[in-house]
């Protein structure tokens, strides 16, 4: 995945926090995915404006972690979501 890729949630896919159950969900047509807090933090940055490099930099600063480690995990997660057709790159 190129660092210039600008991931975003496609039309009809929404990231929502379920206050009653205290969990994050990714809602897609006829599907729902439960996501943990870390995945939700990544998905909140996937607005189609930020590129992968900027997303990684923001997460590395937020979590005080090496950018290379963050990038590896983010690329794997986003690739999986793209394969499930709930993320556009």
TrEMBL record:
Keywords: PQQ biosynthesis. Pfam families: PqqD. The keyword Cytoplasm does not apply. One of its GO terms (biological process) is pyrroloquinoline quinone biosynthetic process. One of its GO terms (molecular function) is quinone binding. Monomer. Interacts with PqqE. Transmembrane segments: none annotated. This is Pyrroloquinoline quinone biosynthesis protein D. Pathway: Cofactor biosynthesis; pyrroloquinoline quinone biosynthesis. It comes from Roseiarcus fermentans.
């Amino acid at each position: 995945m190129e660092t210039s890729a600008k991931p975003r949630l496609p039309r009809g896919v929404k990231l929502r926090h379920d206050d009653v159950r205290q969990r994050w969900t990714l809602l897609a047509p006829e599907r729902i995915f439960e996501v943990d807090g870390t995945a939700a933090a990544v998905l909140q940055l996937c607005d189609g404006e930020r590129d992968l490099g900027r997303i990684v930099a923001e997460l590395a600063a937020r979590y005080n972690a090496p950018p290379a480690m963050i990038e590896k995990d983010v690329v794997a997660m986003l690739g999986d979501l793209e394969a499930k057709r709930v993320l556009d790159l």
